[in-house]
Write a structure and sequence with these properties.
Elements lengths: L1 H33 L3 H17 L1 H11 L1 H21 L3 H15 L1 H13 L5 H12 L1 H5 L2 H33 L3 E2 L2 E2 L8 H13 L7 H27 L3 H22 L2 H5 L3 H21 L7 H11 L3 H9 L7 H28 L11 H22 L12 H6 L2
Antiparallel strand pairs: 1-2
Helix pairs in contact: 1-2, 1-5, 1-7, 1-9, 1-11, 2-5, 2-17, 3-4, 3-6, 3-17, 4-5, 4-6, 4-9, 6-7, 6-17, 7-12, 7-16, 9-12, 11-12, 11-17, 11-18, 12-15, 14-15, 14-18, 17-18
Length: 416
């Protein structure tokens, strides 16, 4: 059953990850073809995540009421439309519209899968299943590196997005045909027919839960800081500071993509192995924060060391799945959809805001005459991202731990 679910759910999430990270490799192409500057690139990338975040509350209510199949399949059609608009764009505003449509359409593709896992499997398996899904889906990040650069060289970036739109339509059909409405007799929707007012009140109750408040900054910055590298600044940094061509940039970003796949796999069993979620998240966040700080101080490390540092940033961010499991443990079963999408709204809202904000930070240090970004601009970006993580970690340390087992795993076995 799990394999069947992954075959249905994973392709759509792979496409989502590919689309959200595609600007990093294509940034020089978009700048050359349509004159998009650094602030514009930040806005273009952030638009995907902001529209994604804006949709989380209605998507959460829809997932609870209608179930993942209908919601995910319907919005995959919007993804296809966004890809076509992006491919046809002849100006920055049309590119922006395409990215917004992509973000709206991709909004349920992670949370829908997480609702399936939460409703169909035991709670203690949630972190492992989420990590597995993230690891598979993160191959989309890998596809948005060297393969995207080669595809753009072969059929142009416009042809690439036409192809992505076609895949979105095919995945929507796959979802309708193969994803069930219930698993093992358990419905994937809550079965509640709530009105808009009742649903919004339910969302309000989730947000008002004080136990979630110390987690909010971590959810807001934890993924967004690393996404700023993989989805936006990685490509320009490698081009401006190290002079790499598109294929070589893609190869370095490919290593980051591999880290984003291996990281969740490595983190997946740790919360159950040590019976803690908080103290899995803390060292993972501290590692990523420390590397950003090192890049901010160093600016241009030796090229042989740079891929290692970038790999550790993306692999270290595997703690994200455990932080999501920490938040999931706070939500009642009937509100899983809206609860998880409140978490994802924070995550994607953070991505959507951190990227344009980092663009503004970079702009403060660009060459006033040419607008070129040099080492000071990127050092400022790294300091901003590392500082954001440090602030969120300070809040997260105040959060209560929510271990997977009320007793230690060994005690659980003794009681059987």
């Amino acid at each position: 059953m799990l394999l069947r679910l992954l075959v249905v759910l994973a392709p759509a999430y792979i496409l989502s990850q590919f689309l959200r990270n595609s600007v990093a490799v294509l940034a020089p192409n978009l700048s050359q073809d349509l004159g998009i500057g650094s602030a514009g690139l930040g806005t273009l990338t952030g638009a995907f995540f902001l529209s994604f975040a804006f949709m989380q509350l209605p998507v959460g209510m829809a997932l609870d009421r209608f179930g993942p199949r209908r919601v995910m399949a319907s919005l995959l059609a919007v993804v296809g439309a966004g890809c076509v608009v992006f491919a046809l764009a002849d100006s920055a505003p049309v590119l922006l519209l395409g990215r917004i449509l992509m973000g709206i359409g991709c909004a349920p593709l992670l949370m829908g899968a997480m609702v399936v896992f939460a409703r169909a499997f035991a709670p203690e398996r949630f972190a492992s299943l989420t990590a597995m899904h993230l690891a598979i889906g993160n191959t989309g990040i890998l596809l948005a590196t060297s393969p995207l650069a080669m595809m753009a060289d072969l059929i142009d970036w416009r042809g690439t997005f036409f192809g992505a739109g076609l895949l979105a339509g095919l995945f929507a059909v796959l979802m309708v045909v193969t994803l069930p409405e219930q698993i093992r007799g358990k419905p994937l929707s809550s079965g509640r027919s709530e009105g808009i007012t009742q649903s919004l009140m339910g969302v309000g109750r989730v947000i008002a839960d004080r136990r979630l408040w110390p987690l909010m900054p971590m959810l807001f910055t934890g993924y967004g800081s690393v996404a700023a590298m993989t989805a936006l600044w990685g490509g320009p940094y490698l081009a401006d500071i190290y002079g790499l061509n598109p294929i070589d940039r893609g190869n370095v970003l490919l290593l980051m993509a591999v880290g984003s796949i291996l990281g969740p796999i490595c983190y997946a069993p740790l919360d159950r192995r040590f019976n803690t979620r908080k103290w899995v998240v803390v060292p993972g966040c501290a590692l990523v924060m420390g590397i950003f700080g090192l890049l901010a101080i160093w600016g241009r490390p030796p090229f042989w060391l740079l891929p290692i540092l970038l790999f550790l940033i993306s692999a270290g961010n595997g703690y994200f799945s455990v932080s999501m499991a920490h938040a999931r443990s706070l939500y009642p079963d009937h509100a899983l959809g809206r609860g998880m999408t409140v978490s994802n709204m924070l995550v994607m809202g953070g991505v959507g805001l951190l990227q344009p904000m980092s663009g503004l930070v970079a702009g403060l240090f660009t060459d006033g005459a040419t607008g070129a970004m040099g080492e000071p601009s990127y050092r400022a970006v790294f300091a901003f991202l590392g500082g954001s993580l440090g602030l969120s970690l300070a809040f997260y340390l105040k959060a209560p731990d929510c271990p997977p087992y009320k007793k230690s795993p060994s005690d659980e076995m003794k009681s059987l």
